[in-house]
Write a structure and sequence with these properties.
Strands 1, 2, 3, 4, 5, 6, 7 and 8 form an eight-stranded antiparallel β-sheet that branches. The protein has two domains: about 50 residues; about 160 residues, Pnp Oxidase, Chain A (Roll), CATH 2.30.110. About 30% of the residues lie in helices and about 30% in strands. It contains six helices and eight strands. A hairpin with a 5-residue loop joins strand 2 and strand 3.
């Protein structure tokens, strides 16, 4: 005998009237299951996309044969040359002390990443390479500008380009990769300037610019081989 659908529907309706809470929970469970399934597919797609991503290659692995990541004795030799070639962090007041002699430092251009993704390069910067018990760091001083602002946060990364160093009689160029560990800002004021608190080479007075001092860990040093004719020697 053929079952009568209206009888089944009538029984279901009666059940709804008798136990509405049970029916309500049933529909809630259906909604939860459907929502979970909808959320699962994007997650699976995301995991698949992550699995297909190209592995990250650190910027300091010298993928090009025109750069050499220095290690062991070569790193130590570079660190020694950079210490000897460090520039001047003396304040204007310190530079006026009798007997003070400014070091003849190497040119060093600080590079960072601008907000639009382009490269920021300083034309004037003061820097000192420090090696204490095998721990290498660099202290930089920059006048307020985009390059300084790019680095003005702990954890930011930049590079110090030394285009004209000498090691064992050989002319070399170094890329010193840095990570900022502290930032000190000397805000401009006429009083601070008159007191000689700014660097002896400070040139930001007309614009009343602040002076930024960065302490950075050295992440790596790369040597640019002589086969590369950069022809760059910034002022």
């Amino acid at each position: 005998m053929m079952k009568r659908p209206f009888l089944k529907s009538g029984a279901a309706l009666l059940q709804m009237l008798v136990n509405p809470r049970r029916l309500y929970m049933k529909y809630i469970l259906k909604i939860v299951c459907i929502t979970s399934l909808l959320g699962l597919f994007p997650c699976l797609n995301l995991l698949a996309a992550q699995g297909n991503e190209r592995p990250y290659i650190d910027a300091y692995t010298s993928a090009s044969s025109t750069k050499i990541t220095l290690r062991d004795a070569a790193f130590d030799a570079a660190a020694k040359a950079l210490q000897a070639g460090s520039s001047d962090l003396a304040s204007a007041a310190e530079a006026k002390v009798a007997g003070y002699s400014a070091p003849k430092g190497l040119i060093g251009n600080v590079m960072s990443t601008n907000p639009d993704g382009s490269v920021g390069i300083s034309t004037i910067s003061e820097w000192v390479y420090i090696d204490v018990d095998g721990t290498d760091s660099v202290k930089l001083q920059l006048t307020e500008g985009q390059n300084a602002l790019n680095l003005a946060e702990v954890g930011r990364r930049g590079t110090l380009f030394i285009p004209d160093a000498t090691v064992d009689g050989k002319n070399v160029r170094y890329l010193v990769h840095l990570k900022v560990v502290s930032v000190d800002i000397l805000k401009y004021s006429d009083e601070a300037y008159a007191a000689g608190k700014f660097n002896s080479h400070y040139s930001g007075k007309p614009g009343k610019k602040s002076q930024y001092t960065f302490t950075c860990d050295v992440l790596a040093i790369e040597e640019v081989t002589s086969s590369v004719k950069l022809g760059i020697k910034m002022p």
